[in-house]
Design goal:
By secondary structure, the chain is of the alpha/beta class. Helices cover 38% and strands 13% of the residues. The protein contains 7 helices and 7 strands. A 7-stranded parallel β-sheet has the order 1-7-6-5-2-3-4, with helices on both faces. It starts with 8 loop residues before the first helix and ends with a helix.
Length: 188
């Protein structure tokens, strides 16, 4: 019985030279994709949210312990935008004048992608999703799913530019972010 011949490194190199190189340009496509968020001013973002039939504010756990962000999220809720509290952000709304509903952000993203979902209040699907108080790396993945698999319009009113949103604030210093949120709320 003869032993199968082992492929020499020279034979392997010759065969490898004929392989298709699939490692080129991955950074470009995985970083930006074909659509990137458009930067938006607070007053324009607020007008778009005001004109939406069913907007939803999704709040992340970065507001916990941040009185200013909590105050701004409550201000948006008082203006009539329903609030979905993800992570442990629901604790920031205890005893406050808004009716925030707790839901896991991944489950919510799944539900929002379903056109037949009736929403947190049972009144129908949402058409404009606004994000505040999330970790950039976490939210960017959720927004990527919306961008690539739904027709939902998303606005990130975060402190950092969220490239996978439809519209996003740019990268802002904390004090400028608070000013932008004030202008956003004023124009709702």
């Amino acid at each position: 019985m003869s032993q199968p011949s082992l492929q020499t490194s020279r034979d392997y190199a010759r065969e490898s030279a004929e392989m298709v190189d699939t490692t080129k340009n991955t950074l470009i496509y995985t970083t930006w994709g074909r659509k990137t968020a458009k930067p938006v001013n607070p007053n324009v973002a607020a007008k778009l949210v005001s004109k939406a039939k069913r907007p939803l504010l999704i709040v992340g756990s970065e507001i916990v312990g941040n009185e200013q962000l909590t105050e701004k999220a409550i201000g948006i809720g008082i203006k009539g935008v329903p609030i979905a509290a993800t992570g442990h952000s629901i604790t920031a709304f205890n005893g406050k004048a808004v009716n925030a509903k707790y839901i896991n952000v991944h489950a919510l993203a799944h539900y929002l992608g379903d056109e037949n979902w009736k929403g947190l209040d049972g009144k129908g699907s949402y058409d404009m999703i606004v994000f505040l108080g999330h970790k950039k790396y976490y939210l960017d993945q959720v927004l990527s799913g919306f961008k690539n698999f739904t027709d939902l319009k998303t606005i990130a009113i975060e402190r950092h530019f969220m490239q996978n949103a439809t519209l996003s604030f740019g990268n802002l210093r904390p004090e400028v972010h608070v000013e932008a949120l004030d202008e956003f709320i004023e124009n709702l």
